[in-house]
Amino acid sequence: MNTDAELDAWRADWHGAAPERVASIGAVRRAHFRYRALALAEYLAGALLLAGSAGYAAGADDRTMWAWAATVWLITIPTLIGAARLRRGLWRAADASVRGFLDLEIRRHRHMLSSMRYGYQVLAVTVTANALWALYTAGTAVAAAVTIALATLALAALVALGLALYGRRARRGLAALETLARGLDEPP
Fold first, then answer.
1. CB within 8 Å of 118: residues ≥ 6 apart
2. pLDDT on residue 19
3. Which of 76-80, 149-153, 160-164 shows the lowest mean pLDDT across its residues?
4. Burial class (CB in 10 A: 0-12, 13-18, 19+), 44
5. Radius of gyration of the chain (CA)
6. What does the alpha-carbon distance between residue 116 and residue 159 come to, in Å, rounded to a whole number?
7. Considering Cα of 69, then 75, then 76, then 77, what sign does the dihedral take?
8. Which residues of 62-74 are buried (b: 16+ CB within 10 A; e: fewer)?
9. In the prediction, which pLDDT does 141 show?
10. CA torsion sign, 138 to 142 to 144 to 150?
């Protein structure tokens, strides 16, 4: 074989190979920032929901709004407590090694799957509470009951779709991370 042809074949193989993806310190920091920002946004949204429901009930003339606000509180507070409990041990890596960060990301993706299941449970409780509210309202205002039922169904469908997409992303990410972890465990 000609030396030039051999060099050309080697060069084609070298340039044709896909480069390995290496996580930079910046990527790890961005992932940590995103995780913390999403957790903070979740807690802030819960606090706004609690304050908004109490404010709305305080300004309403109807006493039944206090029952609605209490229902919102009874759903939101356990949800926030459950979210905080699910996040235990997910704030930082055990050590500053590649394996430590990889294990942290695997735990975070497993948390995503747990939180998706938890989200379906909260959705079921919320839909049940809204259905009961619609039934209660149907005795006095049928149009309001129909509006509550339709809004609940539309919102439940959107939330279920979002949870399904979230779970799909979590399962794909977890599979990729576990494959990477197996590759690190294999001897060179």
1. 82, 83, 86
2. 47
3. 149-153
4. exposed
5. 25
6. 11
7. positive
8. eeebeebbebbee
9. 78
10. positive
Per-residue DSSP letters for the chain?
Answer: --HHHHHHHHHHHHHHSPPPP---HHHHHHHHHHHHHHHHHHHHHHHHHHHHHHHHHHH-S-THHHHHHHHHHHHHHHHHHHHHHHTTT-SS-SSSSHHHHHHHHHHHHHHHHHHHHHHHHHHHHHHHHHHHHHHHHHTT-HHHHHHHHHHHHHHHHHHHHHHHHHHHHHHHHHHHHHHHHHHHHS--
Dig out the tokens for 108 from the structure: 């975070």
Q: Residue range 41-56: average pLDDT?
A: 89
- pTM summary value: 0.66
Handedness of CA 104, 108, 110, 111 (dihedral sign): positive
Decide which of 20 and 144 is more confident: 144
Residue 123's nearest CA partner among 87, 152, 150 is 152
